Request: fold
Amino acid sequence: MSLEQVPASERIHIGFFGARNAGKSSLVNALTGQEVSIVSAVAGTTTDAVTKSMELLPLGPVVLTDTAGYDDDDAQLGAQRIEKTRRELFRTDIAVLVADAAKPLSDTEHALMRLFAQEHTPYLLALNKCDALTARPAELPENAVLTSTVTGEGITELKEMLGALAQTDAPEHFIIRDLIAENDSVILVTPIDESAPKGRLILPQQQTLREVLDAHANALLVQTEQLGGLLQSLKTPPRMVVTDSQAFRAVAEIVPADVPLTSFSILMARYKGFLKTAVEGARALKTLSDGAKILIAEGCTHHRQCNDIGTVKLPRAIGAYTGKNFALSYSSGGTFPTDLSGYDLVIHCGGCMRTEREMRWRMRTAMAQGIPFTNYGVTLAACTGILERTLMQDILLQ
Reply:
């Protein structure tokens, strides 16, 4: 990822939903001014979700997703395509329901509106192909707009409505910026080992570093081996130390007890809105029986290293902490099972590559089925015996 790019997980995700041949792909192309999706008169041309990251005024950085028709009746793949379209909704911040303006809303469109309501997803109704109307409706719902990709009618209005819907009164939330003040010193412990990406920092480290700089505080980056020397060289203790969770044990032994200590992963759980749930999930770890089944879920897909955190370091730490053997399963990337029956615990990564909405959906999916849900950093803090310390006297839970 270029340093100039806004990560996909931080962009507004706008999904286009509807029946086949409603004009979803044409509308996406008209909004972007680009040929993002293939357009055809044949119903069902879009068989898989197509995404495009871009700057879309007046919204700013967005991800647009063109989904397959929700009424796909293909005997072999229709149900799978519908399920994949449904999954796209779980990461969608704003939905656009595209319908043919010349036809009454169908069962498909009503089903999608019920799904939007169920997931608390704000949506706009784009009554498309309005150029073919013989008579215009007397009035439209507040969230509806007539659009035409032939004449361009309603395209600008749709952009403006999306911009208005994207504005929120919710308070801005941060990874670390609200925890520090101008001129504070913050030490960021970023081990560079065989699992570190070549030539760059991982996304949570980049984002945390940027927020420290935005707060006009002093960011001190160091590897674990240099941490002790750095602390001794400082005239005053740092405001806090943030470490990669994998280095918790070594870092906790070096950092004085009166200096706040946490990890990038724990801060990310707070940022994504599931830290309290993650703490309770980690505390459930000790209650699991020998042989219990744990799902270890990662939000991105990467090549497994010989000392991989999810398949090596985390299981090793859990085994040492509990003295038990568990049955471990794995998922990665955009896949996350909706049926978690049979699992006793879900341990997720920090979720930096997933949107807040999607991480909350994954958490709710587990909690609705009575499955404790936690993440890597919280789990490793518990296994190291420093969970309460890394919550900084519960400041992070407030």
